[in-house]
Write a structure and sequence with these properties.
59% helix; two-stranded parallel sheet; 26 helices; mainly alpha
Length: 552
């Protein structure tokens, strides 16, 4: 008996330790800790211990809690999910509910109920994400488009404490992405919100839960054309649409529409990473109407969220955005210029007719009038005026779009009116960017218009005391310097003119040599290809038996 009593005391002590040192306190019933209640719990534990000791079977269930009982207790702490937003303002109940949601998500995950686990995580993202983090996610989306940042919070101006909280949150729930991809839960993210006024959509909830970068990668990776079947579903008919990883462009865009910054970032990522779904259609000549509608919406987002810093414009358009003011400095510029995100989008989307060049010009001019910044959309407006004038409103002549698919500085000559040509020139000079202005004049036709533009740029350079920079830019652009040198007023002193002319002539001769070498290489390739074609044309081919006349 003494040995049996000793075993019961040990079991009772072990149960007490578990009761006081684990989550049992949280899972206990809502009872007042009176002496009577404690005595009742002690008697229950004693009876449990006695039953365990007196059990004849050697098998014991050493689990801390019954999982079914844990689920019931946790669910009792949760209000209806459609009304859970009420707890946001309750500081006492919100932390308890968050713990219960996380625990239920883990329990569902261990049971293999991945759809229910995802629902718990989405509720956490929808209702337990601070507004400060939501604002920072929106801001980081715009910064990623304008600054080409790979880190969602690298350019964010938020405090270090907020950044740490955001990164900690992302690392805490990063396994949710793997769960979605492994168990094909993509369709659950495409459902609309049951109550848009109080609850965001599941897709927005996932962004708030995990952050922008991992969710954007998931959306871009599984993006498809509107109303199209995935390759996996085509190859495997047993894979239902419910379990398909397809995420159509128009569906995702409609779910992100309530938050324009996130929609802007998503469409920009699709344009950069999946152009075959957005601008470069290899299997169809006419893109879907839903895609062209997205082009129009995307254009408005580019205009609505321009780069906030003027210096970002020059970093996006390349080194040709400005000139060196020093006499010995090299003029920033080259024949090719890197385009801004908006200009790249215009080059790719204009041929599809989502918006007309005339409408785009009005939008850009209106945006420029609303600010005193002269650099605001100057390059994009110049591109639209230069390449959009020759485009008919009906888009019947597809050949007129051939120059739109190429870089704006190498798109060939375009005939526009003299007033529009002067407008384009003034836009480039307002940056100021003499290399761009010279490059534009060189590809302008007819020659009479180009002559007027040369007179305008010479007058500008003399007025701004930048004639030396004009000579250097013209030399690097391949222009004829003799027409500019004769326009130097008598008695005008240009600091460092001799050095500039020597350097310009040297660069010009170097370009001529490179052009000649390139032509010689092309001629050699042509001769080699013609010889190979001639040699192959002399080869015979085997004719099968029974074929008459030597023809298959």
């Amino acid at each position: 008996d003494s040995e049996k009593n000793f075993e019961m005391e040990m079991v009772l002590r072990d149960l007490q330790w578990r009761q006081t040192q684990t989550a049992a306190v949280y899972l206990a019933d809502n009872r007042v800790d009176t002496e009577e209640t404690l005595k009742t719990l002690k008697n229950e534990m004693l009876s449990s211990a006695a039953a365990a000791v007196s059990a004849s079977s050697t098998k014991t269930n050493d689990s801390l809690f019954d999982i079914a009982n844990v689920s019931l207790r946790l669910q009792s702490r949760l209000p209806p999910l459609d009304n859970i937003y009420v707890l946001q303002g309750d500081k006492k109940l919100a932390p308890i509910t968050l713990i219960a949601l996380e625990a239920m998500a883990e329990l569902y995950f261990m049971k293999g109920q991945y759809q229910d686990a995802l629902q718990m995580y989405l509720v956490i993202g929808a209702h337990f994400t601070p507004e400060k983090i939501k604002r920072e996610i929106d801001k980081s989306a715009i910064d990623m488009v304008n600054n080409e940042d790979t880190d969602a919070f690298a350019s964010s101006s938020s405090s270090s404490q907020t950044k740490t909280a955001m990164r900690t949150r992302m690392s805490r729930y990063q396994h949710v992405i793997a769960m979605i991809e492994c168990h094909y839960l993509h369709n659950a993210l495409l459902q609309p919100s049951p109550n848009p006024d109080t609850t965001p959509s599941p897709l927005l909830s996932l962004i708030y839960l995990l952050g922008l970068v991992p969710t954007k990668s998931l959306l871009v990776k599984n993006a498809t054309l509107p109303s199209s079947r995935s390759a996996a579903a085509t190859a495997n008919p047993q894979l239902s649409q419910k379990n398909s990883p397809n995420m159509p462009l128009d569906t995702v865009a409609s779910l992100l529409a309530p938050t324009p910054p996130l929609l802007h970032c998503y469409l920009h990522s699709i344009f950069q990473c999946r152009p075959e779904l957005y601008t470069n259609f290899s299997k169809t000549a006419v893109p879907p109407k839903s895609v062209t509608d997205l082009h129009r919406q995307h254009l408005l987002l580019y205009i609505r969220y321009p780069p906030s810093d003027t210096s970002n414009v020059f970093s996006l358009v390349g080194t040709g955005g400005g000139d060196s003011s020093s006499s010995g400095g090299r003029v920033g510029g080259d024949d090719s210029f890197t385009v801004s995100p908006l200009q790249a989008f215009l080059q790719a989307s204009l041929p599809h007719g989502g918006t007309s060049p005339q409408e785009i010009r009005k939008l850009l001019e209106k945006a420029r009038q609303s600010t005193s910044n002269k650099d605001h959309f100057a390059i994009e407006l110049a591109y639209i005026i230069e390449h959009g004038t020759s485009v008919s409103s009906s888009y019947a002549d597809e050949a007129s779009f051939s120059s739109l698919a190429t870089d704006g500085n190498n798109g060939g000559s375009t005939e526009i009116s003299l007033d529009d040509a002067r407008t384009v020139l003034n836009l480039y000079l307002s940056l100021p960017s003499l290399p761009r202005a010279v490059s534009y004049i060189e590809r302008t036709s007819p020659p009479m218009t180009a002559a007027v533009l040369w007179d305008d740029i010479v007058s500008y350079s003399l007025r701004k005391d930048r004639f030396g920079a004009l000579l250097e830019a013209a030399a690097r652009g391949g222009a004829d310097l003799s027409h500019l040198i004769v326009k130097i007023p008598s008695g005008m002193k240009i600091e460092g003119l001799r050095d500039k002319l020597i350097q310009s002539v040297t660069d010009y001769r170097g370009r001529e040599i490179m052009a000649e070498c390139g032509l010689n290489i092309v001629k050699g390739d042509k001769v080699r290809l013609l010889r190979e074609l001639t040699h192959r044309s002399r080869r015979g081919f085997r004719v099968g038996a029974g074929v008459r006349g030597g023809v298959r």
